[in-house]
Fold these 2 entries.
Entry 1:
Amino acid sequence: MIKATTFDGRRVAVFGLGRTGVSAALSLQAGGAEVWAWDDNESARAAAEADGVALRDLSAIDWSEVDEFVLSPGVPHILPEPHPTARAARVAGVPIICDIEILAREINARPVADRPRVIAITGTNGKSTTTALIGHILKSLGKDAQIGGNIGRGVLDLDRMHAGTHYVLELSSYQLERTFSLRANAAVFLNLSPDHLDRHGTMSDYGAAKERIFLNQTSDDTVVVGVDDDFGKALTSKLKARNGRRIVPISARRALGHGVCALGGQLVDRTARNGRVVCDLGKALALEGMHNAQNAAAAYAAVSSFGIEPRPIGEAILSFPGLAHRMENLGSVGRVRFINDSKGTNAEAAWQALSSYENAFWIAGGVAKDGGIEPLMDLRSNIRKAYLIGEAAPGFSRTLRGASVDCKVSGTLKMAVLCAAHDALASGLKDAVVLLSPACASFDQFRNFEVRGDAFREEVDRLIDLFAKSAEAASRGTAA
């Protein structure tokens, strides 16, 4: 645990006692702060209290007595409707922050020579894979790399910081809008597409929240920006006009005169006068698809900014085992592969997965995002059949049938897996893929995308085991 000593003697309210809220409360208490913590959920309060968190009902306090307010990133303070605690804090003029801000202040309080290096990653899609890949590369090179933020551990649960530490932080727009002091030695901005607009209101405000990842950088720091979408191109031009930082554009779609790009399946570094091939991405089995080429380019650009040679970075990229729930290969039955992309919770993420497979037996559905799956219909030739689950199934069915795509309302994930596996095996296609990439949130049927992905894995494991036993029995019968 990182002790929040910069809050010593201050009174801090904490609302939201999930993973990050509990770690923030305990960190603040350990650092000498007086903590008043609360959650609307009784079981969450009980669990936090058992861990040693001091509870106090925030609906019954005098907010003028509070110095700062740590609000869980998932709880809104403005749109679509501010939580009562956020409204009360704002009326009283109490700053609203999150655990990332606490970490940032602890880093800044240390002598410059003793500070860890911070690599921060954001974007609508691909940030978890890029974060995990950067962590993998650094660990492969013998570095002390710790992954946290919107993935893995809460940042205040990371190990003690020292000069050799590399904090690799996935940061959501929800976290960034409540972070003010973080300086990223390497800041990665992958892409921007419509998402979370209920929280941010407009694409402009959503982008502005993401851009906060560049706050506090100096001329010693590096900016990595994806330029495969219009927002990234405009952002690069804007940042160049400000001067100062080293800016590295990345692309998986086109050659760059300066930057890091994927060309013909090769990862190419053109940041120096003479470009060089870093590695053959075709050999990176856990990084299929154009979007993963962008992730690899981003990871390479971030790590190489610390002066590390290209060859060992490229070797580490090829050994990356992949990220659970993001185009995760679960195995095969015959020629049919099963791919877990439960983290594909919006149309853009699902587009990336579908574009990677020419014969997809696609499982989709859940709680639909704005825009539904209409943007995916330009990939209809990749969809052999769709199997629809959850609340979105009726609407998705209408969209698919309107685009002449064969589909079935399966209702449950279990039924969708069974039907998709049956049809994929019966198709005789040599490269058939049963793909779970829901293009939806999970909350109608599952607590989160991880639980949904785990349920998919369990169903696939049963099928693989069943077919293995059938093959074994047939083999014994033939031998007899």
Entry 2:
Amino acid sequence: MRKLFAGIAVLLLGSGLAVSGWAQDTALYGAHGISPQAVRQGQLGSCYFHATIAALAKTAPGTLRNAIRQNPNGGYKVHFFSGPDEAVYQSDVDYGRAHGYDRSEGTWVAVLMRAYAQRVLRQSLVVAIQKSDVIPVFIEPMAISWLDGSDTLLVAYDRAIRSVVSQDGSMDQYALKQSLATELHTEGIPTSEAQALVGFLDEKGFFAVLAQTVRENGEVFGAYKDLGQGGIPVRVMEAFMGQGKVNAGMTNDSQQAMEQLRRFRAGGVAMVAGTKPTAPNAQIAGASWWVASHCYTVMSYDDAAQTVTLRNPWGGHPGPDGTFTLPLSVYLDGYESYTYTQ
């Protein structure tokens, strides 16, 4: 037995796969690696994200795996099809997991989730700056350039604002100014420079405008807050697969919906479907799988049997892992839309 373990150790070291690296890989990807069954949504309203990641895990696991790289400075770098890579810090992943935002096996979904949330927040802040009338015109390009290229500013802003905004959108401006200066310093910006930046923003009335914006627009509320407010699968698919490679349709065009299911059955297509806001009949309303306005991963389609198999990203409802099969007619009745890669 001792020789067997020694032989395994030699093979691992000889192949360049150190035991510590294997342990890290298992912690990141879990026992079953990148698979739909590993994906489990948490308490946020992020079904559109989790169902889509499960769909991509089924058809393009390599794309998701290649998106995650170790960051030499700690944590991870997540690469999207376009736009800047997002630096994901372990502390932010731990924050999301501790608050029940993701319950997936391993932490790979939580890493992708955090990166996508930062991406959306970054894009939202750029738009907010462009629309702001309190930031001088000559500073706007510099601010946008810094935001586009700075993980430090984005992460500091997100950590600061999530600690001072209540769920009803009320913001403690004084606490935010103090917290932002602290977070900027923590991320390596000298205290004097951090305080000067915060003071400049305060002088220009930025925090007063931001308080109003936060009440009206959850997208600048913080990365996790934004992600939990809902979204559309198209944007998630495009982030990893690219624009022009994703499309959507409505099930009320039953002929087109069936044609898409046949294309899906042929392979290489990731697909999710969203239920209607209300159940069309009492039978569906009482079904164990039914959740209104919810996104599901399409797992398979049997053209001969005329059945569709789907999975709830909750990882349950129905049990044991949320996977269930419906007659095609019930699928067309209960679901409103679908999104797919081309």
